């Protein structure tokens, strides 16, 4: 009787698997591959696109729906320079009196001439092409270097046995970096061995930065407001029971892209944003209606609602405790950087350095023991 024996090779054991394709996770994967070009690196992402909270409307419409501005940004500047991504100062066009009479008076906002953006304050810079360009560039670089990025793959189980980490029962790695909001991970992922109770409770108590907040972008072919002398800062309609919190000029004048940006609350839709923007700027007549596109993104999928959580634990060492010396935790909430992009960059670099040091330690041990076959290193 014929017997059928499968000849397919066993699945690979990755050197590093990164969970989460936000800026933190992709930066870790890219740095590991840059230092160790022969290494096997995989990024797993539960969404159908990379970027996490760094997302633009579309490649042709580079307006940020998540993170947009940077301030004290030494590490971020070094990264954007290395990736060839330019930054520019937030536009500050307009006049002293920035709004027409709103809501029957009383809600008017004023700033100094050329006043700074209400939403982000002085000194803010933006990324040309949007912050979402950073993960896209990192992801392309990872794949050029031989790494893999797999979308639509949520990690639900992490098991550490005998120096090997198994994810979802089918992916194996020597080291794993979990680069995702702690609260989300603590709620959705089962760990074996279990996380220490202090770590689990700290993760659950850590708010995912900006969850439940949203942004809307209204695009125009031309900046009608510059003719009207408005700089687009407003307190929005939230005090009237509406969905818009504040508004600002979101344009990139150098590249001829014009938009009003705004924070919006849960329940915001394209229709109510169109209606409410007329309440705010309708004094300018028909021009406010010449909308090319409205995009609304409420970030209700980045964190778990209904838990009592705060930002006080950001950067806590407890969030960064490793599991079994094999699983490293990163992501902006693990750093003391207010949940900002900078925190994602710092945590991504920390996680890369940590796993690189561990791999180097393993290689040194193998060399001492005369076992060099599995040695991963950069070519001389
Ligand atoms: C509306 C908004 C406005 C913001 N504005 C600013 C700003 O102006 N300036 C600033 O500095 N920062 C801002 N931020 C914050 C900034 O966007 C974040 O700090 C940064 O993008 C976080 O990156 P990260 O890699 O740490 O996490 P994320 O970008 O959250 O990446 C985590 C990734 O992990 C994935 N993931 C989660 N669980 C799993 C799982 N089990 N399996 C697989 N994948 C998983 C997620 O889908 C996600 O892609 C803003 C954020 C939002 C939402």
UniProtKB/TrEMBL annotation:
It is an enzyme of class 1 (oxidoreductase). Residues 112-356 form the Amine oxidase domain. Keywords: FAD, Flavoprotein, Oxidoreductase. The keyword Flavoprotein applies. InterPro entries: Amino_oxidase, FAD/NAD-bd_sf, Flavin_amine_oxidase, Flavin_MAO. Gene3D superfamilies: FAD/NAD(P)-binding domain (3.50.50.60). Substrate binds at residue 263. Its cofactor is FAD. It catalyses: a secondary aliphatic amine + O2 + H2O = a primary amine + an aldehyde + H2O2. The keyword Flavoprotein applies. FAD binds at residues 155, 333. GO terms for molecular function: monoamine oxidase activity. Its EC number is 1.4.3.-. It comes from the Eukaryota. It holds the Pfam family NAD_binding_8. Belongs to the flavin monoamine oxidase family. This is Amine oxidase.
């Amino acid at each position: 009787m014929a017997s059928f024996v499968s000849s397919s090779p066993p699945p690979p054991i990755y050197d590093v698997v990164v969970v989460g394709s936000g800026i933190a996770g992709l930066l870790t994967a890219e740095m590991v591959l840059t230092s160790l070009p022969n290494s096997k690196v995989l990024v797993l992402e539960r969404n159908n696109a990379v970027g996490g909270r760094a997302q633009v409307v579309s490649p042709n419409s580079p307006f940020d729906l998540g993170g947009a501005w940077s301030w004290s940004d030494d590490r971020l500047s070094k990264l954007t320079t290395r990736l060839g991504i330019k930054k520019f100062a937030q536009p500050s066009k307009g006049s002293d009196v920035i709004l027409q009479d709103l809501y029957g008076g009383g809600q008017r906002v004023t700033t100094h001439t050329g006043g700074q953006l209400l939403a982000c304050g002085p000194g803010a810079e933006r990324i040309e092409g949007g912050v979402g360009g950073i993960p896209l560039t990192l992801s392309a670089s990872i794949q050029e270097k031989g790494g893999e990025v797999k979308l639509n793959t949520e990690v639900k189980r992490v098991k550490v046995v005998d120096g090997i980490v198994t994810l979802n029962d089918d992916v194996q790695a020597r080291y794993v970096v979990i680069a995702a909001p702690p609260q989300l991970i603590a709620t959705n992922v089962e760990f074996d061995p279990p996380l220490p109770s202090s770590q689990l409770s700290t993760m659950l108590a850590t708010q995912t930065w900006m969850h439940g907040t949203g942004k809307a972008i209204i695009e125009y072919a031309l900046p009608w407001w510059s003719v009207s002398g408005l700089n687009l800062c407003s307190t929005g309609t939230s005090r009237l029971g509406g969905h818009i919190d504040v508004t600002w000029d979101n344009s990139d004048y150098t590249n001829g892209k014009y938009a009003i940006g705004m924070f919006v609350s849960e329940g915001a839709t394209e229709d109510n944003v169109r209606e409410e923007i007329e309440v705010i700027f309708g004094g300018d007549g028909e021009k406010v209606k010449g909308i090319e596109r409205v995009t609304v993104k409420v970030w209700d999928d980045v964190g778990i609602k209904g838990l009592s959580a705060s930002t006080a634990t950001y950067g806590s060492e407890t969030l960064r405790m490793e599991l079994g010396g094999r699983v490293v935790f990163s992501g902006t909430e693990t750093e003391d950087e207010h949940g900002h992009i900078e925190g994602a960059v710092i945590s991504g670099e920390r996680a890369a350095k940590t796993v690189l040091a561990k791999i180097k330690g393993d290689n040194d041990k193998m060399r001492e023991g005369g076992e060099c076959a599995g040695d991963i290193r950069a070519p001389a």
